[in-house]
Amino acid sequence: MRNAPSLRRAGSPRRRKDLLFCLVLLLPAILLCTAFILIPIVDSVAMSFTGYKLANLTKGTPGVWNDFGNYTRLWRAGKLQSAVWLTLGFVSITVALTFLLSMSLALILNTDPKGARMLRSVMMIPWVIPTVIAGLLWSWIYANPYGLLRYLVSVFTSGRVTDFGILNGKSTAIWGVIIAALWKQIPLMTLLLLAGMQNVPDDILEAAQIDGAGYFTRLIHILIPYMRSVIAVTVSMCIIENFKQYPLFATLTNGGPMGATTTLAVLSYDEAFVNYNYGSGAAVTTVWLAIMAVVVLLFNLAFRRRQS
């Protein structure tokens, strides 16, 4: 008992050395994150409160501080609120459909059907393809009048609809992008969920089955609770992926028709690199980043509260 304080004193230098060693190992990552993530974010937020345009960039002069001028101009023009609601709708629908379809495929693959290994390999092809290439591929499928989709619609309607263009209508264009996003994102989420399923102890599932628990009872009360951490990570990744989705919109619609697919990502690009108003583009990016952070935070808080 007398030696306990001396042991603690002897252990404290060792603890300090361990902490110092950990800090040295983390230092490169901290420096890289600060240089390429934290500083650009702070600079972008600061730029959003200035009138920084192409002339400032070419002459090397700082932007003029205009308080919330960029935000109010975008709000009065109706661009910001329209892009916010469209982004939230796109993210909500895409994430929900991606999770439901991926979970269904994972449940099927978890039964180990014939050819499951080959199917897992083939499924990864859409995810491996670069997003821009995937967008070009779907633009060819949607093309009017020679696209595959137009031909299939013509066949299934017995020739009554011959000029269907999903990207040409204001109410259907966003669904064309959602379909392409689903095709691109479902494979990865399916495999991540499948990996989580295969970590569920078989003896618990067998015991529940012996006790008379049906398939859906085992799914809701055993399988999904064991997969909570995997579900939280995969859905969070999907939310972030769809919030920052720009390549599919750029290659399929470029924000059209008539602004029907102008999300925050598209609006930010248009303001900064089409209108050459970098301060306004930074304002959109700041709103975009804040909303994404809040949505991910609320999802994780709700998920943890439900888990507890």
Write up this protein.
The chain has about 300 residues and is mainly alpha-helical. The protein has a domain at about 50-115 and about 185-305: MetI-like fold (Orthogonal Bundle), CATH 1.10.3720.10. It is built from 15 helices and two strands. It has a two-stranded antiparallel sheet. Helix 14 (about 265-275) packs antiparallel against helix 15. It is flat and about 75 Å long. The two termini are about 40 Å apart. The mean pLDDT is about 90.
Give a brief rundown of this model.
By secondary structure, this protein is an all-alpha fold. The protein has helices spanning 3-47, 54-59, 69-76, 79-110, 116-123, 125-128, 131-142, 148-156, 173-197, 202-210, 215-226, 228-243, 247-252, 264-274, 278-307; strands spanning 50-51, 64-65.
Q: Count every helix, treating DSSP H or I runs of 4 or more residues as helices.
A: 15
CATH topology of the domain at 48-114 and 185-307: MetI-like fold
First-residue to last-residue Cα separation? 40 Å
Beta-strand portion reads under 5%
Radius of gyration (CA) equals 25 Å
Enumerate the strands of the largest sheet in spatial order, edge to edge or round the barrel: 1-2
How is the biggest beta sheet arranged?
A: 2 strands, antiparallel
CATH superfamily of the domain at 48-114 and 185-307: MetI-like
Helical amount = over 70%
Structural class of the helices, strands and pairings? mainly alpha
CATH architect. name of the domain at 48-114 and 185-307: Orthogonal Bundle
Round the mean pLDDT to the nearest integer and report it: 90
Total strands: the figure is 2
Assembly status: single chain
Name the overall outline: flat
- Spans where pLDDT lies below 50 across 5 or more residues: none
Order of helices and strands: HEHEHHHHHHHHHHHHH
Broad CATH class of the domain at 48-114 and 185-307: Mainly Alpha
